[in-house]
Amino acid sequence: MAAAIDTQSAPSGARGFNTELKTFVGMALILAILPPTGLVYPYFIMQALCFALFACAFNLLIGYVGLLSFGHAVFLGTAGYVGGHAARVWGLSPELSILIAVIAAAALGVVIGLIAIRRQGIYFAMTTLALSQMMYFIYLQAPFTHGEDGIQGVPQGKFLGLIDLSKPYGLYYTVLGLFLLAFLLIYRTINSPFGEILKAIRENEPRAISLGYKTDRYKLLAFVLSAALTGLAGGIKVIVAQNASLTDVHWGMSGEVVLMTLVGGLGTIFGPVVGAFVITAMQQYLAGLGQWVQVIQGVIFVACVLAFRRGMVGEIARRFKASL
What is the predicted pLDDT for the residue at 90? Predict the structure, then answer.
């Protein structure tokens, strides 16, 4: 009986892996050839990739652990400020600035995680929101952030001393390479024994505890990893935009990443990427409508929730599986 089960499940798992691998390769190829075609501005794709990485890191926490953070933008903004300060004031190279930004976000993730991780449900979400807003007001007053003006004129420099990031394509393919590496790290984490334990905690934490797993430790590790990956997005974003501002720390940014994840597909590997591109495209191409952009976002969000309860990617995957 066990042999029969293994025989039937193996091809299904292999087929799923092959589908995801083909999707990843296709995504990478499309992103690699889009800028030279002139159909899309490289800056738009780079901005979308930063938010896509942010959304993937957030999805790692809510989609695979079941922890909803309403203050995840604090890691994006912290990394932006630290990375921007390191590049502009300390004169560090872009790779070192990004590395320091990741370390700063991870360290803040440890502090916030230790405080919030013992709470459950809405209490966890509100704790992260409160701590995020506290950091927002600290950054508003801190001298090195320059208050509402932010850190302007962040130099781009040369990545690894070889790639000139002041050149559009040099910057673009560096950002794309970092995004793909981070995406593979998230994918490997989700499909590792560690990822399986996170899914078990999401589905039934008391049962995971009864099996001997120290769930708080695993949740803290996932929280810190998510914070570090968000910090990577923030460190890249400040190099791309050449500035760091309070916008990236504000609670509204935390709301946007929730929207991106839900629209694309909560708990799916490619959903946050699609959601990030959709929301970023709306903000980019509908900017002329002013405040109406937020209204349109709300309408599209409601429509996606009603028509695609699993998100765009989740619904497409469900229908594709049903047709097999």
Answer: 92
For residue 185, which of 149, 230, 152 has the smallest C-alpha distance? 230
Residue 151: its H or E element:
strand 151-152
Q: Tell me whether residue 316 is in a domain.
A: no
Query: Mind listing the pLDDT tens digit for each residue in 104-152?
Result: 999 999 999 999 988 888 889 999 999 999 999 999 998 888 888 889 9
Handedness of CA 26, 171, 312, 278 (dihedral sign): negative
* 262 occurs within a structural domain: no
44 falls within a domain: yes
Domain range for 240 is: 16-32+39-249
In contact, 268 and 262? CB cutoff 8 Å = no
Residue 305: pLDDT band (50, 70, 90) is: low
Q: Please compute, for residue 52, the number of CA atoms within 13 A of its CA located in the half-sphere on the CB side.
A: 26
Q: Is residue 6 part of a domain?
A: no
Gap between the Cα atoms of 290 and 320, Å rounded: 38
Q: How many domains does the chain have?
A: 1
Residue 251 pLDDT more than 90? no
